[in-house]
Amino acid sequence: MMKKFYNIVFLLLLLAGCGKEEAPAPQEKQEMPEKPAPVLNLKKSSFGELKAWKNDKTEEIYHAFELNCRVINKIKTPFIGNAEVKIPTVDYQKVCREFSKVKPQNLKTFIENNFVPYLVTYNNSSEGKFTSYYEAEIKASYEKSDKYNVPVHGKPADLVEFNPKDFDPSLPSKRLLGRVQNQKLVPYYTREEIVSRGVNAPVILWGDSYVDIYIMQIQGSALADLDDGSKVRISFADTNGRPFKGIGSILLNNGVLKPGQASMGQIKKLLKQNPQIADKYLNENQRYVFHRLSGAEGPIGAMGLPLSAGRSLAVDKTFIPLGSLLWLETTGPNGEKIEKLVAAQDIGGAIKGAVRGDYFWGSGGDDVLELAGKMNSKGRYFILLPKDTEIKNGD
């Protein structure tokens, strides 16, 4: 009887085992293929492929090129800047030595004999975005008063610059800005903190409009009409190192503006007529720009040189070395063609990308602001490299 009982139990266990699904064998984890890294390439071209090259008044860029060479002749590093496009310093200095013998009216022939144009492409595309900027005008005074009560700050005494690569060669080279607090380096104050609490920085001028000063900070420089009838140029000194956010996108994201209404002229008018909007939204741009007084002939760009109206371009120096010449093909705010030789002489917080440029329109009031603020065009550019330069494209 006991044996029969064990046989029944065994049979039940066997049947139960047959009805149970086996756990699936663990599958090998499939690795997703890595996306190829973005690649910058230079395609060799000729001056005949540059639209309107023969019609360009290249003598207009003579002075900008002359200023570039003064800086390039002092460079001691193997390449001009740390850009992905590598231009050997010795190659460019050789061209600059020859340029010193050239007259403005002969500049085009000189360029054709000493440079080769290369179309800049990124991920097999030569198309990029081109905007423009200008030198603003503000009304200001050296003395604070009821009318002039908005500070134009110089560089703060407690602003500290830090590069991780200086401490560890394996770390990326990046310029960071901060301040020391309790023996620790921390990010510098935001725009909101600076505006509401003040900052340990000199006041170089007093303006009559925070909106005008805000726009001056976006543009980087301004020409100040002083209350005594004189004029003085205000140049870029530094920033608080915080991220930049464009006022147009801030107002669009908050529903204050509708798409198509975000020109700088319209924005300036809106903010001046509605100060409560300015108070509420301007601080979303954490970036704050500090300035200095300058006796320069024009607004100072990132190379420390005065910019030339219609001939200077702000670029992303990660890709394009400052000091280089570029042939620009794009359109202006009213659809007019812009096809001319320009100099990479400046940078900008919003200028990011291998094919990205900010065209310097010039100096002026709201009329120039309207033109500069409206430009948002597609285009391309060619970088002009000395004939001796060897090109190594990305794979």
Class inferred from helices and paired strands: alpha+beta
| CATH fold-level name of the domain at 39-141 and 298-395 | Barwin-like endoglucanases
Compute the separation of the termini in Å. 82 Å
Largest sheet strand order:
3-15-12-14-13-16
Tell me about the biggest sheet?
A: 6 strands, mixed, barrel
Mean pLDDT: 88
Estimate what percentage of residues fall within beta strands: 25-35%
Q: Tell me the number of helical segments per DSSP (H or I, 4 or more residues long).
A: 10
Shape: globular
The unreliable regions are: 1-27
Fourth-tier CATH superfamily name of the domain at 39-141 and 298-395: RlpA-like domain
Radius of gyration: 29 Å
CATH architecture annotation of the domain at 39-141 and 298-395: Beta Barrel
**Class of the domain at 39-141 and 298-395 in CATH?**
Mainly Beta
